[in-house]
Write a structure and sequence with these properties.
- It holds the Pfam family DUF3455.
- It comes from Cobetia crustatorum.
- Keywords: Signal.
- With 171 residues, this protein is mainly beta.
- It has one domain.
- The chain contains no helices and eleven strands.
- The strands form two sheets. It has a nine-stranded antiparallel beta sheet, with no helix packed on it. A two-stranded antiparallel ribbon has the order 1-2.
- A hairpin with an 8-residue loop joins strand 8 and strand 9.
- The chain starts with a strand and ends with a strand.
- The relative contact order is 0.25.
Amino acid sequence: MKTTICISGLLAALTLSPMTLAMDVPESVMVPEGNKVAMETVGVGKIKWACEAKDDGTMGWVFKGPDAALNDADGKQVGKYYGPPATWESMDGSKITGKQLGIEPNGKGNIPLQLVQANPAEGEGHMMGVTYVQRLNTQGGAAPAMACDDAHKDKVEIVTYQADYLFYKAM
């Protein structure tokens, strides 16, 4: 089941221009009731993949982590996203990590949509009180299409991507 959501508004302290988002959000990445959008950003960056043996012994592309700027609606950087572990950090130094609760495929070549439950924030600032992070509108970032076999072992590839990151707080 998909639900359509319309969102506008940002964390007031950031004094950002509101973005508006209207899309069908799959149930697997829906934020539980009782939470509201506190900040909307666009992540623009890259994801590192390495060709190596997986846990089951087969060769494959293994996700090594993101490195992205988090921008407001005007394109101004307000934070960054990096890892591992996956970390969202505001320019004020406050940051969160979290536990992935759900993913949903979003087409060939795109990393999946995602829902993360936030751990308590480190530092004082905009990330204080964030309960969930939702990744939507993903473009790019998926594992490389090239072969990953013994001949390519330890090869590292960087893939560009973009995604909307919505930060929620309890109402």
